[in-house]
Design brief:
alpha+beta; OB fold (Dihydrolipoamide Acetyltransferase, E2P); Immunoglobulin-like; five-stranded mixed barrel; four-stranded mixed beta sheet; 5 helices; 18 strands
Length: 263
């Protein structure tokens, strides 16, 4: 082969390489096999949205990291699912993994990106989920925490504040996550009916107050054990809050937020 032919082949190779590199730069959500040649991150086509924080790609369930949406029969369940459908359904997305690639149900755990936008974060920003980091805080934790704070300030959807007259009366006096103990007090000079109010962690664990009235300037302790007088206890839970960081959410009987606190 002549020197001129070698030069032509080299030129063709460089031109092809140039177009491939530029295509990847401008179109990050491309075919999986091509993407994996250049990166450890995966891409996939969203075939179905299962709920507000779970999608299906190539027949495999993908659980969105950093968030926890309402379950079926809970307020904003349908809205969260519809919001996610608008963002990702029938679209090619990029997946970025966290500390663990799979959960105990063998679902993939991932941050989902469309056109460079973090879909998981958008769900929190718009008030369809609280932030959720059961395996510990990662590089995105501060972004999600800030998004939740902004959402609460703006009162969007799931972040909306309670309008109950007792919402400003209930104070968190003690939160001992190591001993799974919480103490609330009523600072107002009138009684507060907490029937149906809910205490919840970042995940699925919750305590719903039974028929209960918190008298003026009286404290109530919520922990583990048997119910006894002014002490109400979680039942059937080995633990509620994790040692790697968690949040307590208190909501009224309508599901609106009364207070929250993270560690």
């Amino acid at each position: 082969m002549s020197s001129k032919q070698n030069q032509i082949q080299l030129l063709i190779y460089l031109v092809v390489l140039f177009f491939i590199v530029n295509f990847i730069f401008f179109y990050p959500e491309l075919d999986k096999s091509t993407k994996n040649f250049f990166s450890e991150q995966d891409v996939g086509f969203v075939e179905r949205v299962i709920d507000g924080d779970t999608i299906e790609i190539n027949g495999t369930s993908v659980r969105l990291l950093g968030i926890n949406c309402p379950e079926k029969r809970e307020k904003f369940y349908s809205e969260a699912k519809s919001f996610l459908e608008d963002l990702v359904l029938n679209k090619t997305v990029r997946l970025e993994y966290g500390k663990n690639k799979y959960d105990r149900y063998q679902r993939i755990l991932a941050y989902v990106f469309v056109s460079g936008k973090n879909v998981n974060l958008e769900i929190v920003k718009n008030g369809f989920a609280n932030f959720y980091f059961p395996s510990g805080k990662d590089v995105y934790y501060n972004d999600f925490y800030d998004a939740w704070e902004r959402c609460v300030k703006d009162g969007k959807n799931f972040c909306a504040g309670s309008e109950d007259k007792c919402a400003n009366c209930i104070e968190l006096k003690k939160f001992d996550y190591k001993n799974q103990e919480v103490i609330f007090s009523n600072k107002c000079d009138f009684e507060c009916d907490l029937t149906g109010w809910e205490i919840k962690d970042e995940g699925r664990k919750k305590f719903i107050f039974p028929d209960f009235v918190l008298k003026d300037e009286v404290e109530i302790n919520v922990g583990e054990g048997e119910n006894n007088g002014d002490v109400l206890f979680w039942k059937g839970e080995d633990y509620v809050w994790t040692n790697t960081g968690d949040t307590i959410f208190l909501r009224d009987e309508t599901g609106k937020l009364v207070l929250w606190w993270s560690y």
